[in-house]
């Protein structure tokens, strides 16, 4: 069992868990992920490692309540435990001194961008961070990203904080202003990553994206997380999660991401009907 040592509500339906997992923390690197299962009958879900502390033996994950399992996670409190917490999984981010790097995080994607940006800065890169959210209320980790980057730019879709616009608007400004970007990393919702790749392709900027596709075991055995990159089938769990963004078949990935939408809707509906209304969390397992 893995204990939740800290819980923080970052925004509505957006939570941070700091989990005691010394053996995972000892080996975790930027870009990797874990797979967790709340209880014996629970669903396995992947969460990217947003931070790790080797000395304290902790792994930090950030998640948004979307489906049944993430809603169940959201009910848990500090001191509660998670049955399975497996990792670190996936290929770590390739860190070297590229020169000038743009790290773009959209929505919940800000969390997984953070450790990569920090590692790239430590490697000597000039790291320009760009983070965005739909509204000010949904924006988080501005201070942590500012510390992890050489420079940070912030935007909100509705203009409720700093400026109005998408992260791609800011990225275009950065490209035109700086004149040279040696690498772009983009993590966030699928449409956002696709839009970033469409933009950087015009400028010939190498772009890496982190794909959070449907996943079950995380070891390459089930094949659920397959994606097409540069015309070849890859597994996000063992070949990724980071890939050449210009080679990703985003249309195929978008289709695959919704194939269980009806089952997910039904699961949330049943979960909501069975959940205890008193707030104690009873009936939610």
Q: Could you walk me through the main structural features you see in this protein, from its secondary elements to its overall organization?
A:
The chain is α/β, with parallel strands linked by helices and 285 residues long. It folds into 2 domains: 2-89, Translation factors (Elongation Factor Tu (Ef-tu), domain 3, Beta Barrel); 100-257, Rossmann fold. The protein contains 8 helices and 16 strands. It has helices spanning 22-25, 68-75, 110-122, 142-148, 167-178, 190-203, 250-257, 261-274; strands at residues 2-11, 14-20, 33-37, 45-48, 51-53, 58-64, 81-82, 84-89, 100-106, 126-133, 151-156, 183-187, 207-210, 226-229, 232-235, 242-244. α4 (142-148) links the parallel β10 (126-133) and β11. The protein is globular and about 55 Å long.
